Amino acid sequence: TNACGTVSKRRQGMPKFEERLKKGEACFRSSNSLLAMKWLDKKEVYMITTMHTADFAAVSRYRGLQSVAKP
Predict the structure, then answer these.
(1) Long-range contacts made by residues 61-70, C-beta under 8 angstroms, separation at least 24?
(2) Of 18, 28, 45, 54, which one has the fewest beta carbons inside 10 Å?
(3) What is the span of the domain harbouring residue 19?
(4) What predicted TM-score, i.e. pTM, was given to this entire model?
(5) What is the mean pLDDT of the chain?
(6) CA 62, CA 20: separation in Å to the nearest integer?
(7) pLDDT in tens, 29-61
């Protein structure tokens, strides 16, 4: 089964992310089929997933006038 969701950075078993990120950047850690991610938008977001990859996708904002890259 697939799982995806946000988690606390203090979650047990969550890998350490030491990198300082700029807005829009992300860093990834993986083991077996589990992918952990840290992404900085307005705040730091931590996610774990078994169904996504470490790629960015283009998302349109503001009625299609601006394209933004999101993991």
Answers:
(1) 68/24, 69/24
(2) 18
(3) 4-69
(4) 0.77
(5) 87
(6) 28
(7) 998 889 999 999 889 999 999 988 887 778 777
